[in-house]
Hints:
The structure holds 2 protein chains of 2 kinds. By secondary structure, chain A is mainly α. Chain A has helices at residues 3-6, 21-57, 74-79, 89-102, 111-137, 142-169. Chain B has 2 domains: 1-96, RNA polymerase sigma factor, region 2, helix turn helix motif (Rna Polymerase Sigma Factor, Chain: A, Orthogonal Bundle); 98-175, Winged helix-like DNA-binding domain superfamily/Winged helix DNA-binding domain (Arc Repressor Mutant, subunit A, Orthogonal Bundle), CATH 1.10.10. Chain B has 9 helices and no strands. The chains are: A mainly alpha, B mainly alpha.
Amino acid sequence: MHPNLKRLRELPQEQSPPYGYGEFARRSARRRARQTRAPLRLMAVALAVLVAGWIMKRGMAPLTGDVASLGPAPQQLEQGRPPAAVDSTATVARNAERWLDAQPRSAIVRVPTQMAVTELEDQIAAMDDQLNAVRLAQPHAQQLALLQRDREQLVESLAQVRYAQILVSR
Amino acid sequence: MAEGLIAGARAGDGGAQAQLYELLAPGLFSLIRRIVGVRAIAEDLFQDTMMTVFEQLHHYRAEAPLGAWAGRIALSRSLMFLRSPWHRARLSFGTLTDAEAVLPANDRSLSPPDPATLDIERALASLSPTARMVVWLYEVEGWSHEEIARSFGRKVSFSKSQLARAHRRLRLWFEPEASQPCTPT
């Protein structure tokens, strides 16, 4: 084995975790709460879908565009790849947000996925409110950076779910 | 690791869980970060891993050290991410060359590394996440090609070729002059 490969085993095995136990417990509780609320939201969205179906059946105009315009297929995504230049999480989030904006709303949705999309959009909106409040109160606070990073992660999660929607709809 | 601590954490004792977190988190985060590279993703996978560790703690039979058992969970989470279609799509959003920012120089959570460590970290970061995972599993964790192939859902030749390519790339990294053709003077 190359001596440098042997050094892989000697790399420091530990680095500070991103947050302490308190924050871990808070995030865990938030995720669990999201999972617990899921059945209720599922029922609500199912009801909304039934109502929408009923309205459409009664001869009203379709609510949105056709299914063929759901968004680029993964191959198209690959072709439309932005220029290879910057490599930060913020850039990914910005590009993901632009991509999300370009996606039309689907006419046919799967309830669990749509539920996740709604949940994430709600969270991003709440995060935007929080960011605005913090910007006004403490323009240079470290909290701002943390919130911004949380928002970037939410945007990426949303892009991930929407991407899954597109894959399924193909 | 103290049996009492594990028993307490299993029983849902917050204090024991906090202590266990302090013990396991640095190693697990380091492992995930090194494999997936991108800090934000590493944080997400780390959260998943720690939650699974606490949820599955009652399955732990002490046949291996707790750190190693938890490490398998971290590796499995990282593998699931690397195998996901989203991982490939994400590359198109950010053009994360597969070598995004594993580099400790920009990471305040790391203590200042010595130049040799930094060099090997950079070399590792220059590999694609998949190649990095294969190198890590084979060279550090001691997995066989069969185990690696199984975990990726591929054939043994996949693991062997990934490793061979990664070795070539690492050799070029460490000995760039070796790749230069000899020219008679």
